[in-house]
C-alpha cells in the first residue's frame, strides 16, 4: 500500500514541488485496516517530501562534498532528523502569494489522473498474487478482475505517454517531459533503480517468509534479524558520499551491485537448518548496499545533468520508477515462487516448509538474475558517466 500510494502521487508532487507521524502510527495500529490506512498516508507524505527535498538541496548546496553529504543523509536517515533540523537550518526565502490560477492551470491534471489511475490499477493487479500461505493462489492472476485491471492500466499508460507528447508539443504543462528520456544516463539510472529496488524489496519479503514459514520463527524473532539492514544502509550512504567525488560513479555502482548479487545467491543455496549467523546474516547485511549507494549516486547525477527548474520533476520521475519497481518485483517473485511450489514440489502439502522452500529458492534465483541484469546495464550504458559530485570551479 505504501508503494502504491507513493507511486500514484510522486508525479503530481514533482510538478507541485511528515512521514514520521504516520510511520509511528503504523506501529500503533490495532487492526489491519488502520495499518493499511496509515501506510497509504505515509506514502502520500513521502511523495510530497522527496521532490521538494531534491529541489531544496540542489538550490542551497553548491556541487561538492556538502551536497553529496546532504543527499546521503536524505537517503539514509530520512524524516525525523530532517523535520527537527529544518526548524532552524533550512534557509529562509521570500514568501510569495499563492497563485490559484497556477495551481489550476499550471499543472497537467489530466495526465496526473491518468497516470495515478494507471499505476493504481497496475499495482492492485500485481498485488493480487500473494506469497504467503494460506492466501497463496496462482489462479488469482487469471481472474477476470485482474485481467481487466491490467488492460485498463495498459490503456491508460499509453494514453498518458501520448498525452504528454501532445502537451509538450504545445508547450503546455506536463508531468513528464518525454524528452527527459533522451538523456541516456537518466534513462539507465531509472532502469537500474527499477530493477534494484524491485529486487531489494522482494528480497526482504521473501526472506521474511523464509524465516517465518520455513524456519518457524516468530514475528519478533524475524524482525530482530532485520536490524542490520538500516545500519548497513546508513553506512553505505555515508561512505558513498565520502568517495563519490574521488571515484567514478559507474565503478561505485558496479562494485556495490556485485556485492549485492551475493545476497540472493546465498539464500538460494542456504540450508534451512543453518543458524542465522552462518549465511542469512551476511545476506541481510549485503543486500541494502546497492539500493542505498544507487540512490545517492542517482540523485547527485540528476542534480548535475538537469537544470534547477526540472530537478524536482526528474526526482519525482526517478522515485516513481523505483516504487513501480517495488510492485513489479514483489509480483514477479510471488508468481514464480507460487508456480514452482505448485508444480515442482513433490510434497502433497504445498503449505509445508519443505514445499515452500522450493518456491523460495526459485524466487531468490530470480532476484539474483535481476541484480545481474542491472549490472549488465551499468557496464554497457553508464561507463561514460565518470566522476560526479565534484565541486564546480568557476
UniProtKB/TrEMBL annotation:
Residues 1-386 form the Major facilitator superfamily (MFS) profile domain. It is found in: Membrane. Keywords: Membrane, Transmembrane, Transmembrane helix. The chain crosses the membrane at residues 12-30, 37-57, 69-88, 100-124, 144-163, 251-274, 280-306, 313-336, 362-382. The keyword Ribonucleoprotein does not apply. Pfam families: MFS_1. One of its GO terms (cellular component) is membrane. Its main location: membrane. GO terms for molecular function: transmembrane transporter activity. It is a multi-pass membrane protein. PANTHER family: MAJOR FACILITATOR SUPERFAMILY MULTIDRUG TRANSPORTER MFSC, TRANSPORTER, PUTATIVE (AFU_ORTHOLOGUE AFUA_8G06760)-RELATED. This is DNA, SC138. It comes from Aspergillus oryzae (strain ATCC 42149 / RIB 40).
Amino acid at each position: 500500500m505504501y508503494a502504491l500510494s507513493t507511486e500514484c502521487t510522486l508525479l503530481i508532487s514533482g510538478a507541485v514541488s511528515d512521514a514520521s507521524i504516520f510511520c509511528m502510527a503504523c506501529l500503533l495500529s490495532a487492526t489491519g485496516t488502520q495499518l493499511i490506512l496509515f501506510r497509504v498516508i505515509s506514502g502520500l507524505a513521502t511523495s510530497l517530501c522527496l521532490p521538494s527535498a531534491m529541489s531544496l538541496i540542489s538550490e542551497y548546496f553548491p556541487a561538492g562534498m556538502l551536497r553529496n553529504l546532504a543527499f546521503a543523509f536524505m537517503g539514509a536517515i530520512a524524516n525525523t532528523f530532517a523535520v527537527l533540523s529544518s526548524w532552524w537550518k533550512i534557509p529562509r526565502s521570500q514568501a510569495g502569494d499563492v497563485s490559484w490560477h497556477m495551481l489550476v492551470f499550471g499543472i497537467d491534471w489530466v495526465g496526473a489522473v491518468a497516470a495515478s489511475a494507471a499505476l493504481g490499477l497496475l499495482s492492485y493487479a500485481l498485488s493480487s498474487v500473494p506469497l504467503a500461505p494460506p492466501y497463496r493462489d496462482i489462479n488469482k492472476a487469471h481472474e477476470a478482475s485482474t485481467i481487466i485491471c491490467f488492460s485498463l492500466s495498459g490503456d491508460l499508460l499509453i494514453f498518458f505517454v501520448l498525452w504528454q507528447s501532445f502537451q509538450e508539443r504545445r508547450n503546455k504543462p506536463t508531468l513528464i517531459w518525454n524528452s527527459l528520456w533522451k538523456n541516456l544516463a537518466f534513462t539507465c539510472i531509472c532502469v537500474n533503480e527499477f530493477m534494484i529496488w524491485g529486487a531489494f524489496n522482494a528480497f526482504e519479503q521473501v526472506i521474511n517468509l523464509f524465516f517465518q514459514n520455513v524456519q518457524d520463527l516468530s514475528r519478533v524473532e524475524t524482525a530482530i534479524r532485520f536490524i542490520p539492514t538500516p545500519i548497513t544502509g546508513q553506512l553505505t550512504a555515508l561512505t558513498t558520499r565520502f568517495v563519490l567525488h574521488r571515484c567514478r560513479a559507474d565503478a561505485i555502482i558496479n562494485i556495490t551491485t556485485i556485492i549485492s548479487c551475493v545476497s540472493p545467491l546465498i539464500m538460494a543455496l542456504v540450508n534451512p537448518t543453518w543458524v542465522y549467523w552462518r549465511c542469512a546474516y551476511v545476506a541481510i547485511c549485503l543486500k541494502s548496499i546497492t539500493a542505498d549507494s544507487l540512490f545517492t549516486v542517482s540523485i547527485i547525477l540528476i542534480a548535475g545533468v538537469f537544470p534547477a527548474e526540472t530537478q524536482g520533476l526528474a526526482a519525482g520521475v526517478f522515485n516513481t520508477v523505483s516504487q513501480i519497481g517495488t510492485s513489479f518485483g514483489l509480483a514477479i517473485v510471488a508468481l514464480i515462487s507460487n508456480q514452482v511450489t505448485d508444480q515442482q514440489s513433490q510434497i502433497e502439502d504445498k503449505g509445508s516448509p519443505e514445499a515452500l522452500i522450493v518456491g523460495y529458492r526459485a524466487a531468490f534465483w530470480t532476484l539474483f538474475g535481476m541484480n545481474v541484469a542491472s549490472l549488465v546495464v551499468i557496464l554497457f550504458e553508464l561507463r561514460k558517466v565518470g566522476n560526479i559530485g565534484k565541486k564546480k570551479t568557476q
